[in-house]
Design goal:
Serine Threonine Protein Phosphatase 5, Tetratricopeptide repeat, mainly alpha, 752 residues, 37 helices
């Protein structure tokens, strides 16, 4: 019986029922039969019963394919085709399944059988050509492609497939011939134009003379110009054409296309930067500057030319000339805020008030401009004037509107709101940033810590978690705050919940990265859960082998418990290779030697650690222990006394002293005097921060790769453009690292 029909037209009607299981399906309503609603299979005609069975098996095959269970998919299609052997769609699926299993001869037989029934099937010929290519039968593949081109000359795909066949063989002349044939036949040959331009660009790159390269690039630009006529004013196409014209020293033509880009994308700062730097790509700096200086003489009131000059001088690290040209550009422009913003960004590094004046000048010319308002708010934030920043962020958000208020604006608005006590506004705006990229939450925590009361900041994140209960990053932030307050049970509870929530998310968000597992491990270590801590430190290192802080922490933990000492040596040596002058790492090495009873080696290393970090209580205590093992008891007692003065809260050191009948009261008095002296001069000793107390907050940037990870900012976000190096103090970073053993705060990398 032959029941061949178009399966895909009916399949969607049945999809819900079929997902329940790969069984015979009730086809519901189709154009072929109209059974009563809910009619059982036995009431259908024989033909419809067969068709329903075919559909069910076909659907099972699709489900297997979706799950990448290709053998199961092929088996389902083979069962379906037994009932409907003439169905082209099924035969194509089977052929593709066979090709996936390298069973090319069987695939070719199936497609040839389809072609016997329908010699004009373009789909069958396309699959046949592919099959011959996989079977390494190029002559038969060419015959199939030639037949295919005769059937439908207006379809661009056969030309592209045939050209790709020649490209893989390295025969660029034939690939070019096929594409140019297609250009003459196809009504809308956009993809043919683009591929021809690529081939000619490759030809230009391989050309042996400048004249040949010039000619090839002219061919490429010709096809790209045709593509623009079909596609419209596409930014990337216009850039590509302009690049080729610059390479051919046709700067006027390049400028024509670049001005078109400016006209079509007037508010895109990233585009303007790209335009300026395009000139550098074609030659040296002097040539690019000379070209633009010449244009500026002919067009002295053209703000774009000055803008490009500013970017080029900035690229060449000539800050004064960059500022001069951005100032000229801002003076010449009538309604473009970007020159003012760029100028303000440069001035903000050393002259924030000057940057503020520039932005007010821009707002006088462009009243109500949202981007200028945002930059003014950001500048106020950078110098700690959060009341004014809050006011201007509110104006910026209103002026830009919902569509153009990017995550960076919401983040900085939330920060200003938090600093001014407007917690509701902070809680309203922060999710707009955090939902775009979870790293904004970590950045918020990092930026808020220096001036925050920990309990207040924890309360803020309590409310945030209530507002966003399924956000794992919020739990991690709150867990970090619990760790800072040494509430490690609460920290672990939040970290465990974060793991649970991250496991339920459909999107691939790398919340559970190496930094997360480091914080999780450290919290467990502080509670004495050594086995669990070890597990998560090793997970940290697996995800981030370069995390030497984790290696040191793990090594010291093992040394403290006198386990895995050989492995501990391996890890700490890797850490020392990264930073041989770290007092913490050197002390860890010495303490491993101590546990191995290599006391002379231990003394050598820990003495070196004490020289790198003088007056550290832990290192000083270690020196006392080592000297005691070497029988140098008087020296050991002196080290323990000094350690106790440096940290009179240390019960273990106090115990060593009292066991030797040493009175602790005079030492406590010395400790108070030392503390008062330090407070009087406003200094604290640098801490070696041995592994159990890492010496600084670890800050990791988001991986480009994983997510693709970094928050790609809107075109209206100008705060982290790569050409401006802004000191941490100007970027609202903490002036000093946060002294916390278990905190790992990351920040998003903004890309304009």
């Amino acid at each position: 019986m032959r029941v061949s029909r178009t399966i895909s037209r009916v399949l969607l009607v049945l999809w819900t029922g079929i997902l329940a299981g790969c069984q015979s399906a009730d086809p519901g309503v189709s154009e072929y039969s109209e059974p009563k609603k809910g009619a059982p299979l036995r009431e259908l005609s024989e033909e419809d019963q067969v068709f329903a069975e075919v559909l069910a098996r076909y659907a099972c095959g699709l489900i297997h394919e979706y799950q990448r269970e290709y053998e199961g998919a092929l088996e389902s299609y083979l069962l379906a085709v037994e009932l409907d052997p003439d169905n082209e769609e099924l035969n194509f699926r089977i052929a593709m399944g066979l090709l996936r299993q390298k069973r090319t001869k069987e695939a070719i037989r199936i497609i040839e059988a389809v072609l016997e029934r329908d010699p004009e099937s373009s789909h069958a010929l396309s699959v046949l050509a592919m099959s011959y290519r996989i079977a390494e039968q190029p002559e038969l593949a060419k015959e199939a492609y030639e037949r295919l081109l005769k059937i439908d000359k207006s379809d661009p795909l056969p030309y592209l497939d045939y050209a790709a066949f020649y490209v893989l063989q390295g025969n660029m002349d034939e690939a070019r011939r096929i594409l140019e044939l297609g250009v003459r036949e196809v009504k809308k040959p956009l993809d043919l134009y683009l591929n021809l331009s690529r081939i000619y660009v490759e030809d230009a790159n391989r050309a042996s003379t400048d004249e040949e390269a010039y000619a090839f690039r002219e061919k490429a630009t010709g096809y790209l110009e045709q593509a623009v006529k079909l596609e419209g004013k596409n930014r990337e196409l216009l850039f590509r054409i302009g690049d080729l014209y610059i390479l051919n020293n046709q700067h006027d033509k390049a400028m024509k296309h670049f001005r078109t880009i400016e006209k079509e994308f007037p508010d895109d700062l990233g585009t303007k930067q790209e335009l300026a730097l395009r000139f550098l790509a074609a030659g040296d700096f002097d040539e690019a500057i000379a070209t633009l200086e010449s244009i500026s003489k002919d067009q002295p009131s053209n703000p774009q030319v000055y803008y490009y000059l500013g970017e080029l001088y900035l690229e060449n690290e000539n800050l004064d000339k960059a500022i001069e040209n951005f100032r000229l550009s801002s003076t010449a422009t009538r309604n473009d805020p970007l020159s003012y913003i760029r100028l303000a960004m440069l001035l903000r590094v050393s002259d924030a008030e000057g940057a503020i004046d520039v932005l007010y000048d821009g707002l006088e010319k462009m009243t109500g401009n949202g981007r200028l308002s945002e930059e003014l708010a950001y500048t106020y934030s950078s110098i700690g004037k959060f009341e004014l920043a809050f006011e201007w962020y509110a104006k910026a958000r209103k002026r830009l509107g919902k569509d153009k208020s990017g995550p960076s604006l919401h983040y900085h608005y939330a920060r200003a709101a938090y600093e001014t006590g407007n917690l509701e506004e902070a809680l309203t705006n922060l999710p707009h940033a955090g939902d775009t990229n979870y790293l904004y939450l970590y950045l918020f925590l990092k930026d808020s810590l220096p001036n925050a009361e920990l309990s207040q900041l924890t309360g803020f994140f309590d409310t945030y978690v209530e507002k966003k209960p399924s956000d794992p990053a919020a739990r991690i932030c709150r867990g970090t705050l619990h760790s800072l307050q040494e509430d490690f049970n609460a920290a672990i509870e939040d970290f465990e919940k974060a793991m649970e929530l991250a496991g339920t998310r459909k999107e691939a968000v790398p919340v559970l990265d190496g930094e997360f597992y480091f914080s999780f491990a450290a919290a467990h270590e502080r509670l004495g859960n050594i086995g669990t801590a070890e597990k998560y430190f090793l997970k940290t290192i697996e995800l981030d082998p370069a995390n030497v802080t984790a290696r040191n922490y793990l090594s010291y933990m093992w040394a403290e418990h006198n386990i895995n000492l050989d492995l501990a040596l391996e890890h700490v040596r890797i850490a020392l290779d990264s930073d041989p002058t770290s007092g913490a790492y050197v002390d860890t090495l010495g303490w491993i030697y101590y546990q191995q009873e290599k006391y002379e080696s231990a003394l050598l290393e820990v003495t070196r650690a004490s020289e790198l970090v003088p007056d550290d209580p832990i290192i000083t205590d270690h020196l006392g222990d080592i000297l005691s093992k070497l029988g140098r008891d008087e020296e050991a007692e002196e080290k323990w006394k000094r350690s106790f003065v440096l940290d009179p809260t240390s019960a273990p050191v106090g115990g060593k002293l009292t066991s030797r009948e040493i009175d602790l009261d005079p030492l406590r008095k010395q400790a108070e005097e030392l503390k008062s002296a330090r407070e009087a001069i406003g200094t604290e000793p640098e801490s070696a921060a041995p592994a159990l107390s890492p010496d600084a907050t670890m800050i990791a940037e988001s991986p480009d790769a994983e997510n693709g990870k970094e928050p790609a900012e809107d075109a209206d976000d100008f705060h982290s453009l790569p050409k401006i190096e802004v000191p941490e103090s100007q970027e609202m970073m903490p002036a000093e690292p946060v002294d916390s053993p278990d905190i790992s705060i990351r920040e998003p990398v903004e890309v304009p």
